[in-house]
Amino acid sequence: MIPFLSSAQSSTDTANSALLDTLLKKIPFESRLQRAPKDIEMQFAQNPLGLPAEKNEKMIALFAEGFVIDSLMYDVKKVFEERYQNPYSDEFQQWLSRPSTQKVHEAEEATNTLQGARRRVVRMYELEQEPPSEEREEVILSLMNSTSTVDNAIQSQTILFRSIVSAFSILSDQRTFSDSQIDGIVSNYRMEIENQIQDDLKQQYLIMYFDLDSEALREYTSFYESDAGSWLDSTATEAVTTAYQNATDRFIEAIENIQ
Q1: Do the Cβ atoms of 91 and 255 come closer than 8 Å?
Q2: What global pTM score does this model have?
């Protein structure tokens, strides 16, 4: 019996691993993970903190190295493996095979291409000329509220912003911050983005899913209202937070090593 059980367990583990690989591949995690770091890079490449140009360039380069996508995805996968719940395997497979799921993920992936960037400009103009209906806005808000989209964005941006402030404190010859001062700066930043991030995300979603019909978005949203969807949302949130925090640790360690 023992060899049989061992073989059965091995087969189950292999199936679970394959499903997780499929889940992480079909959900556009790479696109999601790269979005916030790219925004930070673009913002601080302009050197708003007033570091010497050479130091600012080095800081941005080390930031990019710390947040390299392969390392982020490694951490995401590790969290999923630790938290995986086998009873949801059928639900995940059914959800991934739905046309509505595929359409939503394809639309999200498309926004990160060069063509997608051009399309965003056109969609922004079209939304300005013809604002979305109240019903459409409700569909988008329902999708956002069924997941931890807003909280996740706030947490992610706060982690990344803290890393930059900490790096600046290490690199600056003019000013350094204590831990309590960094906490205060980051707290003020968090309060600032909390006041605007839902509207910003709603606009992003209206643009991202511009060509998708509301019924597809409703069907996609309904999954996240299930137990399997709730597990996926909470696990994805933890995975992204963990990946960003580990990336921050790598980044700050690299900054400290050049001093």
Answers
A1: no
A2: 0.89
